[in-house]
């Protein structure tokens, strides 16, 4: 059965800290891995990763994929209170023309001033 | 923001009543999805559509049906709502590798 496991499930840090969020996956016919940020409403797209070892970067956020070890990390440097959210990891796979998404349960990040 | 709206945004209904949630998009995307989000489970796919009248089941499809009679609208129906279907429902559009989510519908079944 396909699964995506995120860790930790919850994390509390102070502004300015650097955090690393983890995502491991076991997915049939893996194609890509996505990261979303969810505050109090709908998830918003952060990154899509398809190739191993290539870091995606957007401001203070960066992410990398390891297809050999089946995991991805999301790094946030110099955290701010506005980074407080649930971060979702999603695998995209599926056979043939079908498409299957599997969501992790998320990591709840709280950044305190 | 992608042009996705959901209606209603909040609904309280009684067990056993039928409920229909609507997702409307203005982006002309072929793919549309319905998810539910519950504490401890994350987002789970209910049904998805890959074109008008083309739909398929997700991992938690029992108790739900969908219809897509035109590109812009994707309807989710609970034929006979149960308390276990109390949840937040999200619609999304786009291909799996980059989806955009609607604002969500909070459904409470009493």
| H-E order of chain A | EEEEEEEEEEE
* Secondary structure: helix percent of chain B: under 10%
Question: Mean of residue pLDDT of chain A?
Answer: 91
Tell me the β content of chain A: over 45%
So how many helices of chain A? 0
Low-confidence stretches of chain A: none
Radius of gyration of chain A: 14 Å
Structural class of chain A: mainly beta
As residue ranges, the low-confidence spans of chain B are none
Structural class of chain B: mainly beta
Whole-Å distance between the termini of chain A? 41 Å
In terms of DSSP E residues, the strand content of chain B is over 45%
Distance between the termini of chain B: 33 Å
Mean pLDDT of chain B: 91
**Overall shape of chain B:** globular
Largest sheet of chain B: 7 strands, mixed
Number of distinct beta strands of chain A: 11
C-alpha geometry of chain A: globular
Note the main attributes of this structure.
heterodimer; A: mainly beta; 6-stranded mixed β-sheet; 5-stranded antiparallel β-sheet; 0% helix; B: 110 residues; mainly beta; 7-stranded mixed β-sheet; 11 strands
Descriptive overview:
The complex is a heterodimer of chains A (113) and B (110). Chain A has 113 residues and is mainly β. Chain A is built from no helices and eleven strands. In chain A, strands 2, 4, 5, 9, 10 and 11 form a six-stranded mixed sheet that branches. Chain A has a five-stranded antiparallel sheet with strand order 1-3-8-7-6, with no helix packed on it. In chain A, a hairpin with a 4-residue loop joins strand 7 (61-66) and strand 8 (71-76). The N and C termini of chain A lie far apart (41 Å). Chain B is built from no helices and eleven strands. Chain B has strands at residues 4-7, 10-13, 19-25, 32-38, 42-51, 54-57, 64-70, 73-78, 87-93, 100-101, 105-109. In chain B, strands 2, 4, 5, 6, 9, 10 and 11 form a seven-stranded mixed sheet that branches. A four-stranded antiparallel sheet of chain B has the order 1-3-8-7, with no helix packed on it. Chain B is globular, with a radius of gyration of 13 Å. The mean pLDDT of chain B is 91. The chains are: A mainly beta (113), B mainly beta (110). At the A-B interface, strand 5, strand 9 and strand 10 of A face strand 5 and strand 10 of B.
């Amino acid at each position: 059965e396909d699964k995506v496991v995120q860790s930790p499930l919850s994390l509390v840090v102070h502004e300015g800290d650097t955090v690393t969020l983890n995502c491991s996956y076991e997915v049939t016919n893996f194609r890509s891995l996505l990261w979303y940020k969810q505050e109090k409403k709908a998830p918003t797209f952060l990154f899509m990763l398809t190739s191993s070892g290539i870091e995606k970067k957007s401001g203070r956020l960066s992410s990398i994929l390891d297809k050999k070890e089946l995991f991805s990390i999301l790094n946030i440097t110099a955290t701010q209170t506005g980074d407080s959210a649930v971060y979702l990891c999603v695998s995209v796979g599926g056979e043939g023309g079908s498409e299957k998404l599997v969501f992790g349960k998320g990591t709840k990040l709280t950044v305190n001033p | 923001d992608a042009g996705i709206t959901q209606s209603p945004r909040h609904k309280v209904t009684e067990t056993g009543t039928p409920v229909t949630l609507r997702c409307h998009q203005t982006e002309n995307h072929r793919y549309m999805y319905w998810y539910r989000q519950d504490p401890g489970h994350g987002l789970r796919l209910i049904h998805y559509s890959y074109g008008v009248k083309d739909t398929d089941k997700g991992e938690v499809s029992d108790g739900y049906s969908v219809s897509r009679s035109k590109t812009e609208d994707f309807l989710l129906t609970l034929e006979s709502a149960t308390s276990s279907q109390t949840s937040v429902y999200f619609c999304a559009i786009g291909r799996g590798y980059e989806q955009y989510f609607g604002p969500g519908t909070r459904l409470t079944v009493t």
